[in-house]
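Record 1 of the preview.
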Amino acid sequence: MRTGVKILVLCAVIMAVTTGVARAGMPVIRVEEGLTLVTSAGERLRLAGILLPSPKIQRPAERFISEMIASSPVEWQALQDRPDRYGRLVGNAYLPDGRWLNGDVVAAGLALADGRGGPKQAALLALERKARRDGKGHWRAGGAFRIARASPYNGQVHGFGLVEGRVFSVSEQRRFLYLNFEEDWRRDFTIGLDLWEVARFQQVGLDLRHLAGRRLRVRGWIGWYYGPFLRLERPGQIELLDDDPPRQEAANVLQ
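->
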């Protein structure tokens, strides 16, 4: 019986580490790759829902997080039952006073919401918008964060970016659906996804086939496919902006 009890206790501990609160009072000894906490036990904990679009801006985030945690223990809530491909548990970190570390990094303008649509996506987007309005961190004038204009496109290619614009047309070609931001789709920014994925967006009330004329902001990895192209993968990448008047002058929007 005692052996059985020990096994049950061990299973409970494993579940706490992987799917709930990993450990209250977990000591963190350093921060890696901008957003990964390394504990004294060697565990690597990746802050969920946020990212750094470039390795060049890791140091400010690392310094900010290090100052936030100082010698404080960290409570961890994992969002998955196993480590990711890099051996990291992905989740939310909280300080003893209740502060949410993931959100604080975004609120400081040092990281972006990644658009993966996790349980705290709306909160992260709200914090990101406020940091942008207030010119915090990399959102300040001349900082690293920008929102590119879709037409004519003036953002980067081959990297993570945020893009705003009004959809000119929606088209279907073979197995793809495309959101075009200009009459000649080869001249400007385009969003595309597999047709079989459209239903997943409809389930959350986003009808991609009827977005022509709508203003939106999209985020994701931008490449080149007959022009600047973003492959849409999840609903959390799109924000509808029809009720948000276009900004005429803003330091954080590429005019």
